[in-house]
Specification:
It is found in: Membrane. The protein is mainly alpha-helical. The protein is built from three helices and no strands. It has one domain. Helix 1 packs across helix 2. The termini are far apart. The relative contact order is 0.05.
Length: about 160
């Protein structure tokens, strides 16, 4: 078996590496299947198929490559969807919490406009508001920034 050659100089080394890479991809696919609690049937020794032919190996390698890329893309999409869901849920909570404030403010604005018509006083103050979501790790810095910008006039 080519005793004078090192293990990397032998002709079959590239095939062994390809098989190792395919085995890694199969293990990755198997782990992803198990994460979703899908049962993988165990093959009995009598039912294990024979080794594939070289052309079948190329097709199998291409199929494994395609499947691995699809699984990685799906996993990334899952992470993105969960992140978007959390962001939208946070925004929904902000809208729910501020809705009462807006409804109260409309009543106050109507009363102020009615009083302003009666008294014709000008120079009323203008109040503004900002609503949103700030991560826990940025909460203290955000509070400090608001305090400084508003010169202590913040609720």
């Amino acid at each position: 078996m080519n005793e004078g050659l090192t293990s990397y100089q032998r002709k079959f080394v590239s095939e062994v590496r390809r098989c190792d890479e395919m085995e890694r991809k199969i293990r990755f696919i198997e782990n992803e299947i198990r994460k979703d609690d899908i049962n993988i049937p165990v093959l009995e020794p009598e039912t294990i198929p024979p080794a594939p032919k070289p052309r079948e190996m190329i097709d199998l390698e291409a199929q494994l490559e395609k499947t691995e890329k699809e699984i990685i893309e799906l996993a990334q999409n899952d992470v993105n969807l969960k992140s978007n869901y959390l962001e939208l849920t946070e925004m929904l909570r902000v809208l729910e919490k501020t809705q009462g404030f807006f409804e109260e403010q409309q009543v106050v604005n109507m009363e102020l406009s009615k009083n302003a018509e009666d008294h014709h006083h000008g120079g009323g103050g203008h109040l503004g508001f900002v609503a949103g979501v700030v991560g826990r790790d940025r909460e203290f810095a955000f509070e400090r920034m608001l305090w400084r910008v508003a010169r202590g006039n913040v609720f």
